[in-house]
Amino acid sequence: HDQTSVPVQLYPGGDPVVKLMETLSDWLLSLPLQQIPYQAVLDLVNNKMRISGVFLGAELRWVGCQGSRPGLRGYPCSLWTLFHVLTVQHDATPTSLDNTGLEGEAAPVLQVMRRYIRTFFGCEECGRHFETAAASSLEQVKNRDQQILWLWNQHNRVNTRLSGALSDDPLFPKAPWPSPALCPSCHEEKNGVHLWNQNQVLGFLRHHYGASNLSPRYSLSPPRLPAALPDPVRTVQPQAEHRGAAAVKGAERKPEEQPEPRPGHPALRGKPEEVPEHGGRGVWVLGLGFNSVDMSLCVVLYACSCLFLMLLFFFFKLRSRRWKRRHHLHV
User: Which of 9, 194, 242, 251 is the most exposed place for a label (fewest CB within 10 A)?
Assistant: First the structure.
């Protein structure tokens, strides 16, 4: 249940997603079962009960996590993204988890992430590595700032370990992030040794993963975003940032020049060319870009066409009868 209640309280995305997670969370609480059939959860996610306002897009499209070919980035990248956003959102709204049973934990988002990866993540080796890291250092996290930085640090450790592996996208190679080009103030050097300025990193992460920096461009239902806050860290748009934070507000780049966000980065201000823009509410069906409004219009047009044909039929039938009657009188 924690794995649904935390996104419900902290996820800054669109209303249909939040409504779906709320429904799933309430449904799980109401079931007196030790185990829940997978098909039952799938039916709820697919909205077999026709709950108003609950829907997911029919097409799976990666935006900030689009890989250069199938099998790269995608889901693992989006999982990192989600929990980076949740740690920052928890820092921005510390009372969001009140009355959830998690308010007493120093790092509730990380604990939920740990349980999720241990239970559901498909890569067992990845899960073992994450569990080892959590077991050795997660207890040292005492506040929300440390929660944000712990996840960032672990993500960089994973990227260093997987750099050059088969899962590494050659167009977006794994490297410590943010780069000096993206956040110059995050990097320092002492006696020839690279050091992270963690205060600057923390400010950068708060801005980059903050709700005001998320773009609803590819959402079927745009989220309600707070007013933009001033950027606490001076960031520079790199000319060729291979992992870069996706383009932030005010960036003026052509689609083909947009840097791909770091694995785990949300679709931020920008316009990746891989995904055509579409908008509007409604369930996208048939994979052809039709939504429920389009389908309703089709039904109305179909009904009007049928009615028109019926009127034509009765008109000509009545006219035929009159012609036969006149012909009979002449005879």
Answer: 194
- 156 and 295 assigned to the same domain: no
Indicate whether 75 and 165 sit together in one domain.
yes
- Does 302 lie in the same domain as 173? no
> pLDDT for 105-162, tens place per residue?
889 999 999 998 988 888 888 889 999 999 999 999 999 999 999 999 999 999 999 9
Residue 281 in any domain: the answer is no
Burial of 170 (0-12, 13-18, 19+ CB in 10 A): exposed
286 assigned to some structural domain: no
Report how far residue 301's alpha carbon sits from residue 260's, in angstroms, rounded to the nearest whole number: 43
Q: Are 291 and 59 in contact (CB under 8 A)?
A: no
Instruction: Note the pLDDT tens digit of each residue in 8-49.
Output: 888 886 667 777 777 777 777 777 666 777 777 777 777 655
Q: Is residue 273 part of a domain?
A: no
CA–CA distance, 87 with 79 (Å, rounded to integer): 13
Range of the domain at 323: 291-331
Same domain, 20 and 131: yes
Amino acid code (one letter) for 83:
F
Q: Is residue 267 part of a domain?
A: no
Q: Provide DSSP, 12-63.
A: -S-HHHHHHHHHHHHHHHH---SS--HHHHHHHHTTTT--TT----SS---S
What domain count does the chain have? 2
Q: What's the Cα-to-Cα distance from 264 to each of 233, 260, 311, rounded to whole Å?
A: 20, 11, 59
How many residues are given for the chain? 331
C-alpha distances in angstroms, 252 versus 69, 70, 76, 222? 26, 28, 29, 22
